């Protein structure tokens, strides 16, 4: 191979950079081990996968402990009686460390006593998106090997939670697949769309990859996948562009999104909403309407939650030939402060086609996140809703 002389200075510079970053590692005073940071692959894109596993614990949340192959985990601060969260980043066009890693690690360690392992595959993830995708299988195998070592130490599979961002979400799916879908939980944060929307479930994140799989979609109109891939899929603000958006969803939210592994919901799409200004959070309830009789046209029902000072509305759409429709309703006060619900059947009376003048059915609601065994509360009778008329019911809930 003929070496391009113009590339030499670049390579020398890259080696110098690598050396200097290796020496820049500071030592953590608590545990005495050297802190390791993510690699930077600007000049050597696509060369080799070079995966690094960095362990973070609550005693040193800012100091990554490099887990070396072989005996690395045994001789580290890894605590096998705690749960383990494995963070996998996605495509890094410029080969740089993801800016959100530190924030996410800190947020997780702030709320819970766990082992956090950040997977650095910056090298394999640079350059062109398709070549990053080509590295995914090998990366997933490396991560699986580390997990197998954890399992050999007596760690239970259910205590492992993979958090994968974008392309990393599908890597998490593959890892879960390699472990027979028996790992505890996979959270896909904005699972990548390109090359995955039409992939088979084996190739992408799907509900079979762990006991509980959830996905949070925030960019479904661009790089994110549009199809549901988990047991629960949250489509934040419709899943596309975010209002005045915080760049990342806080691990607090992740914890709260937890739904019991014991009683898995069927695959649900949840459209999650945030308010455009801090503190971003609103309260959410799942609202459902069950028709007494299926209809051969689409049925739309407007639901409004009223408190003393607020009114918040969502529209339930029941597809034709189906019995039930559900929707996420975002409300500004907790459900216990909602004192009535107004239902309005939006009938489309057109002179050439007369819609039925009323529908009969049942209304149910539950605050989110669902508790382990929280079931929906339903209004205890069949409701008759005339077309385009507000019908209000008291909700006898009170704050505990
Ligand atoms: C174990 O870790 C300690 C401190 O991090 C280090 O000094 C020691 O050499 C390691 N032992 C082995 C066998 O790797
Ligand atoms: C591991 O975590 C458990 C539970 O928090 C704790 O009781 C124990 O002391 C930890 N072990 C070590 C070696 O830090
Ligand atoms: C709503 O108004 C009623 C009547 O004024 C009052 O009794 C109740 O405490 C208010 N509820 C809240 C949550 O403010
Ligand atoms: C949830 O289920 C457990 C055991 O199945 C039961 O003891 C508990 O009371 C239930 N909690 C609620 C809120 O229903
Ligand atoms: C380890 C490995 O498979 N690396 C590959 C990542 O993708 C680039 C681009 O396709 C390849 O050149 C590497 O060999």
Sum this structure up briefly:
The protein has 400 residues and is an alpha/beta fold.
> What oligomeric arrangement do these chains adopt?
single chain
User: CATH homologous superfamily name of the largest domain?
Assistant: Alpha/Beta hydrolase fold, catalytic domain
The CATH topology of the largest domain is: Rossmann fold
Question: Which regions are unreliable across 5 or more consecutive residues at pLDDT < 50?
Answer: 1-25, 239-251, 253-268, 275-279
Strand order of the largest sheet: 2-1-4-3-5-6-7-8-9
Please state the second-level CATH architecture of the largest domain: 3-Layer(aba) Sandwich
Mean pLDDT: 76
- How many structural units, i.e. domains? 2
User: Any idea what the radius of gyration is?
Assistant: 25 Å
Shape: elongated
The tally of beta strands, per DSSP, is 18
Largest sheet: 9 strands, mixed
Strand content: 25-35%
CATH class wording of the largest domain: Alpha Beta
Distance between the termini: 74 Å
